[in-house]
Design goal:
single chain; 236 residues; mainly beta; 6-stranded antiparallel sheet; 4-stranded antiparallel sheet; 1 helix; 10% helix; elongated
Length: 236
């Protein structure tokens, strides 16, 4: 009977010992730190420009709580930074559980060395700086069956660096007065009609809208003859 009890104890302990041995041989997986990449979507950076930073993982997941630091001053700058003087600046991004990003170098130019940025437009999430903006008279059109004529206009708002153009198109009324003269009022937000929009990027039309387009205009006065008149756009 004693022998049976010992054997019973032996066979009871054996699987427990084997189980413990198996657990000890299982190594915990080592979590390898991922890379993060620091970049900026701001182009044509000059003194006073708001620089917007972006932090992405290698699989393009955006991180919004990283710490972005100036290499030169070792000060945290956040996701926006405004340069106060021209020069070359370096930044890094850090976040717990990730490797430190490589340095991002930003060249800041003085204001008078840059193009005159007149505004921006956004297409499919991408921001474009308007460095050339003009309006051109395109001709006389009939756009319905009323017999009335309208003047056609196109605004050319261009980002020459990115080869992108936003082209709002619209019409203004042309009516005959009692004295026989033609009335052709200047375009404004009140008298334009049948607005359309075409957007081109790298010589390819990416957007065309022929309805539902709202245009607010603030324009300098055109030449009286309207022919090939081009004017700076104060706002679009």
């Amino acid at each position: 009977m004693k022998t049976k009890l010992l054997l019973s104890g032996f066979f009871t302990l054996l699987p427990l010992t084997s189980s413990c041995s198996s657990d000890n041989n299982t190594a915990s997986p080592i979590q390898e730190e991922q890379n993060i990449n620091l970049s900026t979507t701001t182009k044509g950076i000059q003194v006073g420009t708001i620089v917007h930073f972006k932090v992405l993982t290698d699989d393009n997941k955006e991180i919004t709580d990283a710490t972005i630091t100036s290499v030169e001053t070792n000060k945290k700058v956040g996701y926006q930074w405004i340069p106060e003087r021209e020069g070359t600046y370096n930044f890094i991004a850090t976040k717990t559980g990730f490797k430190k990003s490589t340095e991002l170098t930003i060249k800041v130019f003085p204001i008078d060395n840059q193009k005159n940025i007149q505004g921006t437009f956004i297409v499919q999430g991408e921001s474009y700086n308007i460095d050339s903006c003009k309006m051109k008279y395109e001709g006389k059109y009939q756009i319905d069956n009323s017999g009335d004529y309208f003047l056609g206009w196109i605004i050319y708002a261009e980002d020459s660096d990115k080869k992108a153009s936003a082209l709002p198109m619209f019409f203004t009324p042309m009516t005959q007065l009692e004295n026989g003269k033609i009335s052709t009022p200047y375009p404004n937000s009140e008298n334009i009609t049948n607005s359309m929009l075409s957007v081109w990027v790298n010589d390819r039309e990416v957007i065309y809208l022929n309805k539902g387009v709202q245009i607010d205009l603030s324009l300098e006065k055109f030449n009286d003859n309207y022919l090939d008149s081009t004017n700076k756009c104060n706002s679009i």
